[in-house]
Amino acid sequence: MNTEEQQLAEMLHRVAPEPPRRVTVEDVAFRLADQAGRSGRRHREPRARRGGWSWGWGWAPVLAAASVFVVAGASAAVVDVVTSHHAPSSSGSVINPTSPPASTHSATATQRPSSTGQPSWPPQRVANGMWGAELITHDTFNQDSLTSGNGSLYAISEDYLDRIDPATGNVVDNVRASTAVTNSPIITGNTVWLVSSYAGHSVVLDGYDGKTLARVASVTVPVSEQVSTTSSGVLTTGSGGYLYVAAGRSVVVLNPSTRHVVKQISVPAGPVGSVAVSPDGSKLYVSVGAVELLTYSLATDEQLGSSAMTDITSSAGNLVATTGGVWGTAGVGMSEWTWFAPDADLTRVVRIGTGAGGGLVSAPAVSGGTVWVGGSHTLECASPATGQVLRSVTIPTDGGVVEYFGSATVTGGRTYALYLDNRSQQAGVVTLAPPAACAG
Amino acid sequence: MIVLSRCDGLEGVDGTVEVLPVGDRPSEPDGFRDFVEARSNALLRSGWLLTGDWPSAEDLVQTALAAAWPRWDSLIRQDAPELYVRKIMVNTYLRWRRRRWNGEVATGRLPELQAYGDVFAQVDARQALIAALDRLPPRQRAVVVLRYFADQTESQTAAAMGCSVGTVKAHASKALARLRNAPGLAELMAGGVAS
Q1: Can you spell out the DSSP letters for A170-194?
Q2: DSSP-H helix ranges across A289-437
Q3: In what order do the strands lie in the sheet with A243-246?
């Protein structure tokens, strides 16, 4: 814990009062007996549904007739599947992953943003105009959640997937959407994918129409043993348009068009914490433990190499792959930082940027042919081939309180990023005018 | 990292429905009484931080203990009874927050706080704390209570809430950002009023 967290913990212990009375075993026994009586007469069973909960009174004649009652009233988490395929592991029938699905393609950033009206807010200069930063939305989005594709920006606010008009900054559509892990939306074709469940043996991806945000798919992913509990960056896409999902001691390759498992690559050293695919679609990179980076051939599923970062005791996450190597985050507690491993060799790892404070993150993002590394100290663009920082700008503070830039993405020739000013409580999407050297 | 994800604690205990014969009061499991006597104070304080009032806190703790009772032997074998109880508390709390239309509405807190005869400063501190916690989304509040009051590790907090460590970190950082700006809380965190 950092100092602020320790102060919070100490304050909670100090201020939380002693209870007026204790709970006794007799209280609990009475509760059980009371539940027995009530449940024997009428059983109220909540019905879970993805994206929200609906509750209602219902009779449970079967249970009542059987003279049973529910002690631990709980809901069966029934997944509301729109289009679900419980595809078994198909490692025995491997499909060449370099053959792209017919109707999918990688997210592109070539379309011009289409205006859908006037901005709700006039652009507002922020952070002393650093790299021409102008705030165009006033919505708080999750860190690392901004991405672009099909001429739109997408970001996640708590429990919602938002589609943002790049021209105006207006949120033009949103849909209630749950996300289980920190992972930016992944775009394949016209579908935006989120990881809606990620715990234990359960991994579920939900797909949303890129224009209407209607949920068009929900895919249950087979998991080998259990998923990592220190995962970050578990879903990605590659040049073939497939989805790659960290699924316990394996990586599952999904065809987003058919929702079928193409293959399941075993990672015995797992569980896998993060996945990335090389730009040419030939290699799969996975992080396991603290911290090992493994390279697999996507043609043969064989492990090609591994390297470890011995001076780091926390998990690596948020992997992205570029032509020159693999990028990711590492760090302990609230301070994460970004690294670059040339040729996926962690023994040659170099630190990129100066990280972030105050619980913020500085995960790498690849967009517009450039790697962007944000945080609360510097915003940097770097070469995807060499890892060299091309340009860096110092992020100012607001009265000593950090400001934050991250999750940069390029679409329609403009650069966007998420912004947060903790002091003024300003947050949202900013447009940036980075130096020409940042152009990939 | 800042938020977020669902992290709604619905993994694990939800979906597990314990069915017992009506009229049979289950026998008290070995060690259950010792656990209740030893831990009810801490659990109640966690419940108070989650719900903001003692009746709801008691309800929360009793609900969790009642759920733990039938599977107590198994929990003891796994050496994780408190983790389980806290998991159910968080689950129950998050469910209550969802079904606001049907949930018990907490009554005003001031009379209850006054009933303890605390000095005004203590009451003010508690009111400031609860007001600040009330401003947090339920999951962020749960993370704050588990992580910083119950002293659970990030992994334990993630396990209790059915989400990843990254998500816990995200909720924690966002909660800290909100609490940092909550009226009166900065002074409390800096070492203000003692109880």
Answers
A1: -EEEEEE----SS---EEETTEEEE
A2: none
A3: A235-237, A243-246, A250-255, A260-266
Which residues, listed in sequence order, are joined to residue A125 by a DSSP beta bridge? A134
**pTM (2 decimals)?**
0.55
Minimum distance, in Å, between the CA of residue B189 and any CA atom of chain A: 5
What percent of chain A clears pLDDT 90, i.e. is strictly above it? Answer: 44
Closest CB to B13 among A7, A12, A74: A74
Kind and range of the H or E run holding A28: helix A25-41
- pLDDT tens figures, A196-242: 999 888 899 999 999 999 999 999 999 999 998 878 899 999 867 89
- The set of residues, in sequence order, having a beta carbon less than 8 Å from that of B77 and lying 6+ positions away, is none
Chain A residue closest in CA terms to B126? A15
Interface test with B, best of A3, A12, A231 (most B CBs within 10 A): A12
First to last CA, chain A: 39
Element (H, E) at B41: helix B32-51
∠ CA A324-A326-A332 to the nearest 5 degrees? 145
Helix and strand element counts for chain A (H, E): 3, 33
Which of helix, strand or coil describes residue B125? helix
- Cross-chain Cβ contact B5/A29 below 8 Å: no
Q: Chain A to chain B, count of Cβ pairs less than 8 Å apart?
A: 271
- Which residues on chain A are in Cβ contact (under 8 Å) with B160? none
Is B7–A180 a contact, with Cβ atoms under 8 angstroms apart?
yes
Instruction: Please tell me if residue B67 touches chain A, with a CB cutoff of 8 Å.
Output: yes
Give tens-digit pLDDT for A263-287: 999 999 979 999 999 999 999 999 9
Any CB–CB contact under 8 A between A34 and chain B? no
What six digits make up the tokens of A60?
């449970």
Angle (CA) A417-A424-A140 rounded to 5° is 45
What is the H or E stretch that residue A420 is in?
A: strand A414-421
Sheet with A215-221: list strands edge to edge: A186-188, A191-199, A202-209, A215-221
Cβ-defined contact of A334 to B169 (cutoff 8 Å): yes
Burial class (CB in 10 A: 0-12, 13-18, 19+), B111: exposed
Residue A361 distance to chain B (closest CA, Å): 6
Query: Is residue A399 within 8 angstroms of chain B, CB to CB?
Result: no
